[in-house]
Amino acid sequence: MTIDVRYPDLEGASVLITGGGTGIGACLTEGFHRQGARVAFIDIADRASRDLCRRLEEETGREALFLHADLRDIDALKAAAAMAEHQNGPVDVLVNNAALDTRHAIEEVTPDFWDENQAINLRHQFFAVQAVTPGMKAAGKGSIINFTSTAFMINGGGFPSYTAAKGGVVGLTKGLAGALGPFGIRVNAIAPGWVLTERQRALWVTPDALKAHVDRQCLKIEIEPEDMVGPCLFLASNASRAMTAQTLIVDAGSV
Predict the structure, then answer these.
(1) What architecture is domain 11-250?
(2) Residue 216 burial by CB count (10 A; 0-12/13-18/19+): exposed, middle or buried?
(3) Catalytic residue ranges
(4) Could you tell me if 34 and 1 are in contact, meaning their C-beta atoms sit under 8 angstroms apart?
(5) Which residues neighbour 211 within 8 Å (Cβ) at sequence distance 6 or greater?
(6) CB under 8 Å to 172, separation ≥6 — which residues?
(7) Which residues pair with 250 in a beta bridge?
(8) How confident is the model at residue 1 (pLDDT cuts 50, 70, 90)?
(9) Is the separation of the CB atoms in 139 and 185 below 8 Å?
(10) Band of the pLDDT at 55, cuts 50, 70, 90?
């Protein structure tokens, strides 16, 4: 991964990323790590996460901290956040990235499915914020970045619980920005378009679907996970010190 821009204030920063072992999250972990940050990430994917840590240590000589936890378990999430702070110091940057865009039909959704889907895609973001804000308040600064999606903006019909959660992330972001701004803590969101992770390519990408989507974009490119790193680094750094309560859309111009 090559990121041409260097943010000096991120060197040595304590960064916590949810879902940081695969997909977009793995690119975010690597991006912050290569800025010189002390990165801890939470994930349930054990093998992929350990492989990522091993590769980064081989390539950079420094370790990232993998914390295995199921984000549906709030006690486990809080314990992981506490371990990140114990190892790397109070969190300066929180990236709420973890999500799961499982397709589902309206008639098939049960209350249990709904609750679990919301737990994966929305609920954990609030409780991750709750876990790290005492340290941010004490420091008088911090940056929180919540990942939403353009799926709810374009009326994506294949996953209504997911789009409800992702719309909720924007509301959560704005509410948290208002509550935490007086403490010097900024809260913003990133809304990716169709990012072609390995999961997307394996499950849902077809030549016709991809062509139709790219045709709707202003930029005729395939959006890769690495394309989310630059925007996230910007929102984490002092380069965006006057930005909060905003949603940064990164979709090659399809919305």
Answers:
(1) 3-Layer(aba) Sandwich (3.40)
(2) middle
(3) 162
(4) yes
(5) none
(6) 122, 125, 126, 146
(7) 192
(8) low
(9) no
(10) very high
Query: How far is the C-alpha of 114 from the C-alpha of 24, rounded, in Å?
Result: 24
71-92 residue pLDDT tens: 999 999 999 999 999 999 999 9
Cβ distance 100 to 72 under 8 Å?
A: no
Most distant pair of Cα atoms in the chain: their distance: 52
Q: Annotate 90-107 with DSSP letters as a single string.
A: S-SEEEE---------GG
Of the candidates 162, 143, 144, the one whose C-alpha atom is nearest the C-alpha of residue 152 is: 162
Q: How far is CA 170 from the centre of its chain?
A: 13
CA dihedral 47, 48, 52, 55 (to 10 degrees): 70
* β strands within the chain, DSSP E: 14-18, 38-43, 65-68, 93-96, 142-147, 185-192, 247-250
Report which secondary-structure segment, H or E, holds 252.
Answer: none
Single out the residue of 35, 93, 86 nearest to residue 65, CA to CA. 86
Q: Match 């139709």 to its residue by tokens.
A: 212
Distance CA 125, CA 168 (A): 10
In the chain, DSSP finds a helix count (H) and a strand count (E) of 9, 7
Alpha-carbon torsion, ordered 230, 231, 232, 237, to 10 deg: 90
CB count, 10 Å around CB of 122? 23
Q: What φ, ψ does residue 169 adopt, rounded to 5°?
A: -60, -40
Overall size of the chain counted in residues: 255
Orientation angle between helical segments 160-180 and 111-118, nearest 10 degrees: 40
Least confident of 10-14, 132-136, 153-157: 153-157
Tokens of 151: 């799926």
